Amino acid sequence: MTYKRNPVTVVPMREKVGNQVRRLRFLHGEMTQEELAGRLGVARQTVIAIEKGKYNPSVALAIRIARVFGLAVEEVFHLDGDA
Amino acid sequence: MSPIKPRTLLVGVTIYAAVFIVLGIVVNKYLFLPLIGLAFARPVLREFQTLADRDERQTLVSYRSSHFAFLVAMLIAGVAFLKAGIIDDGEPPQVATFILFVGLIVKFASLVLQGRGRRRAALGIGLVIGGAWLLFSLASHGFSASGLAESSIWIAVIVSACLGMRWPKLGGTLLLLAGLATLWFFVLAWSTWPDVNYPVLLLVSLPLTLAGILFLIGDPKEPAVDGDDEESRKDEWSRDLKGLLNG
Fold first, then answer.
1. Does the N-terminal or the C-terminal CB of chain A have fewer CB atoms within 10 Å?
2. Element (H or E) spanning A18, and its range?
3. Do B58 and A46 lie within an 8 Å CB cutoff?
């Protein structure tokens, strides 16, 4: 029996996540950071931090961001080093 | 109860601080003491989910700032402990001992509790407390009769913690009784044994009582998954023990 209680996914801690949020804002009618923050229900500083790559959002927030732009999560976020 | 809005908290904190600053200046300097509570207001309210952060990043920032505060507090307590013990060649100050060891125990317990569940946290606390005091007993009294008698108490604590992994109610009850018994012992000894100090009390009774309670509460039942059965769950206790011992 190979039941594993705590499966661990090994993710390199320093792997960077890039995103297209800034570009997508401009493509969507030059949406302001304030407007995007309002639609996501987060602070503007959080949008700024995500755009600068200083903060990686949770899966839930990443999905909400992708939905604002009508895209899949992977079209908004990518691992640096991925094509 | 609806969560407190950050702005409401800010106004409340400002009024609270202003009142006690004025009272501290005008009436008595000890009225500055309630201001210490401000450091705990946000984290405590957040843990009880009565404070709504605007978003997840703010929560993360708050947690990280608390983490840095913990590290600084440990550093200061550690320096005070080492200075008194090594440079001044004396007894470390009680307050430094208290902050250092209680802080580390809480950190360890919280880490295992969040990462591995209540039972394993209880096991970890039992092993760490029992093991540390066992070493202390042997170092203080060696293998003399009194040393072995004292050591047997800590061996019993370790055995109770191990039993708790297989029979949580039994292990939990034993640890809880040990915690309450040591509390009773130290409280009674207080008047006749002035060397007993409150850090010792809290480094024995509190963790053992906590471990007992954690065993008795137990972990929430996990949903059944394919390949999982009662026997494999029962066998986990030995793997859990090995996992904790191997880090």
1. C
2. strand A17-19
3. yes
pLDDT given for residue A51 in this prediction? 94
Instruction: Return the SS3 of B228.
Output: coil
How far apart CA B66 and CA A41 sit, in angstroms, is 24
Q: Which long-range contacts (CB under 8 A, 24 or more apart) does A38-41 make?
A: A39/A68, A40/A64, A40/A65, A40/A68, A40/B55, A41/B54, A41/B55
Chain A's closest residue to B229, CA to CA, is A3
Sign of the Cα torsion B137, B141, B144, B145 reads negative
Cβ contacts of B60 on chain A, cutoff 8 Å: 55
Whether residue A31 lies within 8 A of chain B, CB to CB, comes out as no
pLDDT digits (tens, 9 = 90+) for B2-21: 777 777 888 988 999 999 99
- Which residue has 């996540």 as its token pair? A17
Q: Are the beta carbons of B56 and A58 separated by less than 8 Å?
A: yes
Query: Measured between CB atoms, which of A3, A42, A45 is closest to B232?
Result: A3
Residue of B nearest to A59 (CA): B56
> How far apart are alpha carbons B199 and A47 in whole angstroms?
46
Q: Do B228 and A58 touch (CB under 8 A)?
A: no
* B160-210: pLDDT as tens digits: 999 999 999 999 999 999 998 888 877 776 666 656 666 667 788 888 999
Q: How far is CA A18 from the centre of its chain?
A: 8
CA distance A34 to chain B (A): 14
Ramachandran class of B47: left when φ > 0, alpha when ψ lies in -120 to 50, beta otherwise: alpha
Contacts 24+ apart (CB under 8 A), B3-12: B3/B49, B3/B50, B3/B51, B3/B52, B4/B45, B4/B50, B4/B51, B4/B52, B5/B52, B6/B51, B6/B52, B6/B53, B6/B54, B9/B41, B9/B42, B9/B45, B9/B51
